[in-house]
Write a structure and sequence with these properties.
The chain is mainly alpha-helical and 133 residues long. 83% of the residues lie in helices and 0% in strands.
Length: 133
């Protein structure tokens, strides 16, 4: 006949310990599934955890570097755009300046032509007055 009592036999105690171990393992497996990582704590695998920590630090450095490179590319692009605008303004100013000087030269040539015509008229008038023609 079986006895009912408050004490646990060795077999019952062993079964309860195994059940607790299985629950702990199930909790660890659930954590691994939830995080997607095989190693979540140093106790899972100390040497791999150290390597993993080093790789995560390197990954963080690479991500920071990539972010800096992207920011630098953006600044270089903005600087190039500004340089292009300045060159456009310089080219426009040069074009306006060149047109101004061409206009001045054209006016000077026209004025010179008028002065030559007037000189020829004056010379003709002087010759006429002097009776040379």
């Amino acid at each position: 006949m079986t006895r009912i009592g408050a004490t646990l036999s060795g077999m019952e105690r062993s079964l309860l310990n195994r059940l607790a171990e299985a629950n702990a393992e199930a909790t660890i497996c659930s954590l691994r599934i939830a995080t997607g990582q095989k190693i979540n704590h140093p106790a899972d695998d100390p040497s791999t955890f150290v390597r993993l920590s080093g790789l995560q630090a390197r990954l963080s450095n690479v991500q920071t570097t990539m972010s800096n490179v992207t920011a630098t590319e953006s600044m270089v692009s903005q600087a190039q755009s500004t340089i292009d605008e300045v060159n456009l303004v310089d080219d426009t100013e040069e074009t306006v300046r060149l047109a101004y000087y061409q206009d001045l030269a054209s006016n000077a040539v026209a004025g010179l032509y008028i002065l030559r015509q007037q000189r020829a008229s004056i010379v003709a008038l002087i010759q006429q007055l002097a009776g040379l023609s």
